[in-house]
Amino acid sequence: MIRAGIIGSTGYAGGELVRILTRHKDVEIKWFGSRSYIDQKYASVYQNMFQIVDAVCMDDNMDELAGQVDVIFTATPQGLCASLVNEEILSKVKIIDLSADFRIKDVATYENWYGISHKSPQFIEEAVYGLCEINREDVKKARLIANPGCYTTCSILTAYPLAKEGLIDMSTLIIDAKSGTSGAGRGAKVPNLYCEVNENIKAYGVATHRHTPEIEEQLGYASGEEVVLNFTPHLVPMNRGILATEYAKLTREVSYEEVKAVYDKYYADEKFVRVLDKDVCPETKWVEGSNYVDIGFKIDTRTNRIIMMGAIDNLVKGAAGQAVQNMNLAFGLPEDEGLNLVPMFP
């Protein structure tokens, strides 16, 4: 059995990790870390875990935790993992970090967009960006895995094949994305109160959202050029889900069949990426509660642009599910172990 510890187990992503790992046949959760609920029963924080999880919440002592487990998940705000990790810890366990601390390779870019100093830049270079469909072989050998952001997972996978094959002009790429409120975390914030969110949709982080450089960096690797794009997220009154609608100018005239063949080249054998049938658009309700990414596209011959669409559950493929997928790869397990989650409906 793989012994797992979770720091930040009472946030939304941490709670989802617990939900997934409790049904994973090769994992035992040994440490339910939560600075806010130390010594409280985990099931008193998440009542859905009543008579399923009997453990009490512990602190975020990564040094002590590293001596008890094989893998540590850090589902914490930016900066915490970087402040705790050290060489001794990495010599004992694998770390899968759900924050942005090790996603961006340029320290100055990270510090500029996140507004904090990086506490352990010496580990950035070795950290593997854990987008499994793209970096699978590197993930298998990693001891420090940077779990991608939710918006970024959806945005990158939706455009990746066309960026890789040079079918879109990267300088024209615009990403418009919508997310449910769980993406903002479990902390109490006035903008996320029911009366503020219900019956409303709003853009936020316009031209400043912190996932922008992550998307630019990864699509830059794919296209082989520097990418600068517009990314605008929106908050919608639902619990879960992300829908990304992406627009770009085509570099040449293409048919539906040609574009579909490009997506199939990269995703036909991917368990968790579903390229939809012609004229079927992704919807968040068809991926809710699952680790799937649904992708569709439409060619607009009138404007010589292509419209790419992707949908994920932000807490599963956008966070906890992807983290477990990374763990499976890193420990030589079947990639889908514990993740065969049929989307919930309604």
UniProtKB/TrEMBL annotation:
Its EC number is 1.2.1.38. InterPro entries: AGPR (IPR050085), AGPR_AS (IPR023013), AGPR_dimerisation_dom (IPR058924), AGPR_type-1 (IPR000706), NAD(P)-bd_dom_sf (IPR036291), Semialdehyde_DH_NAD-bd (IPR000534). SMART domains: Semialdhyde_dh. It catalyses: N-acetyl-L-glutamate 5-semialdehyde + phosphate + NADP(+) = N-acetyl-L-glutamyl 5-phosphate + NADPH + H(+). Residues 3-142 form the Semialdehyde dehydrogenase NAD-binding domain. GO terms for molecular function: N-acetyl-gamma-glutamyl-phosphate reductase activity. The active site is at residue 150. It is found in: Cytoplasm. Keywords: Amino-acid biosynthesis, Arginine biosynthesis, Cytoplasm, NADP, Oxidoreductase. NCBIfam families: argC. Catalyzes the NADPH-dependent reduction of N-acetyl-5-glutamyl phosphate to yield N-acetyl-L-glutamate 5-semialdehyde. This is N-acetyl-gamma-glutamyl-phosphate reductase. The gene is argC.
